[in-house]
Design goal:
- The longest helix has 10 residues.
- The chain is mostly beta strands.
């Protein structure tokens, strides 16, 4: 479960400082003591000690916020290029707030431009030519009733977005005017707080019996949507036009507790998966009625999140409240044991999991232990390579003996991590949201196999 963030503190607008672990610190903040590699789960911080971010670990790392913390967001597809590898980068996102008062909530539609970075040049010594910050944030806000539990943009028409509210309402919005305005804006015109527009949603659905946190657009059928609530019900939305839907009031029921996440199959237009507080994962086929086609006991605790691999469609990843996450080969379901990998690295609940859209064996995981980890399932331990590395380094880095060889990268510095997404058009870029704001990161050891000529 672990979804809260309600009644948080609003981020204060201030110049970018040297917050521990974040890449927004100044290039002048050089540690006075010899550097030491931090080993998560092994080393402890003494009183007065702070983690110092190593810029060489990232090709790019930027931190920002939009005011109130956001439990959920989504990356909005744009027309700037399908595969972009050259800096500076521009990204568009939508995010829903978790404000202290219900009436203060909004959906933020924002553009982050001029995202700089290169290996070894994470924080430029000079600002860009126009005198602005190294990245500029242009934000527009639309009022939302209550806190936003989940936010998703339609992949085929990214200006169409769905929000799940703590009021029990699922709403669909058309943000085309806001995205068009952002695309035409080169710099932030008003440095003050943006005004909140009172835009009406295209659809406001109150058919669920409780609030919910799970929602997903079909990647194959434009406009097809499923939404799940905390009372174990899943509703199917079928598009009747570009802006209207027929919502089935007879829900899909197969779980015995809250539906936590939903994922459509990347290859079968009528098939989706769900996970629940009951510890199960269910596979559904909308052509076969309102009961699951298959149901498996996935974890010994709540199953918080799932991700269906778009590049290897037989693989389904799931993250649990006990900190474990598993990879299943759906082709093995009929044989009983479909788990092909299981990891117990994280010690707190898994809050988000997502396969890379560019590397079939790579996925990212966030946890309540304030770590965002990246994993490559194709990696195996190489003792000769490890011995050679230790011989070349001055410091003896005694990593835990049980550290999984598939663990590729550990990102820290954010508090209360809630959700992450890869950018489907910028290989190697991840965006994450937490109680203290957003991070955009591009680890230096995440290399895309895509040729630069395709950019």
């Amino acid at each position: 479960m672990v979804r809260s963030l309600k009644n948080p503190k609003k981020a204060k607008r201030k110049n970018k400082g040297s917050k521990k672990g974040e890449g927004s610190s100044s290039s002048n903040s050089i540690p006075s003591l010899p550097t030491k590699v931090w080993q998560p789960g092994v080393d402890k911080l003494e009183e007065g000690e702070e983690l110092q971010c190593d810029p060489s670990a990232y090709n790019s790392l930027h931190a920002f916020h939009i005011g109130w913390p956001c439990l959920s967001f989504d990356v909005v597809r744009d027309s700037l290029g399908l595969v972009r590898t050259e800096f500076p980068h521009t990204v568009y996102c939508v995010a829903g707030t978790q404000a202290e008062k219900a009436s203060w909530n909004s959906i933020g539609i924002f553009k982050i431009s001029n995202i700089s970075g290169k290996r070894g040049d994470l924080v430029p010594s000079k600002s860009v030519a126009d005198g602005s910050d190294m990245d500029s944030n242009i934000l527009r806000k639309v009022g939302h009733e209550g806190c936003v539990n989940r936010m998703r943009a339609m992949p085929q028409s990214p200006h169409i977005c769905a929000s799940w509210g703590d009021t029990g309402l699922v709403q669909v919005w058309d943000f085309s005017s806001h995205l068009n305005a952002l695309a035409e804006s080169e710099t932030e015109g008003n440095r003050g707080a943006p005004t909140v527009s009172n835009q009406a949603p295209l659809v406001k659905f109150g058919g669920h019996k409780d609030e919910g946190y799970s929602i997903d657009w079909s990647p194959l059928v434009s406009g097809r949507l499923v939404s799940g609530d905390c009372k174990n019900c899943i509703c199917l939305w079928e598009p009747t036009s570009g802006t209207t839907w027929n919502i089935d009031n007879n829900p899909f029921v197969g779980h015995t507790a809250s539906v936590e996440d939903l994922q459509w199959s990347p290859t079968e237009p009528s098939v989706f998966a769900s996970c629940s507080v009951d510890g199960n994962i269910a596979i559904w086929d909308i052509r076969l009625g309102k009961s699951p086609a298959a149901s498996i006991k996935a974890h010994n605790a709540d199953v918080n999140v799932i991700s269906w691999n778009r590049l290897a469609s037989c693989m389904l990843a799931s993250g649990s409240d006990d900190g474990t996450f598993s990879i299943r080969d759906l082709r093995l379901l009929k044989d009983g044991d479909s788990i092909v990998a299981h990891f117990e690295y994280h010690k707190q609940p898994i809050t988000s999991i997502e396969w890379s859209p560019h590397e079939a064996s790579t996925l990212a995981v966030s946890s309540a232990d304030n770590q965002l980890t990246i994993w490559d399932l194709s990696l195996e331990r190489d003792e000769e390579e490890e011995a050679e590395f230790k011989a070349q380094t001055r410091e003896q880095v005694n990593a835990p003996a049980d550290l999984p060889p598939q663990l590729l990268f550990v990102h820290q510095g954010q508090k209360d991590l809630k959700e992450l997404h890869w950018h489907s058009q910028i290989p190697g870029m991840l965006i994450s949201t937490a109680a203290d704001g957003f991070n955009i990161l591009m680890p230096s050891n995440i290399e895309s196999a895509l040729p630069a000529a395709n950019a």
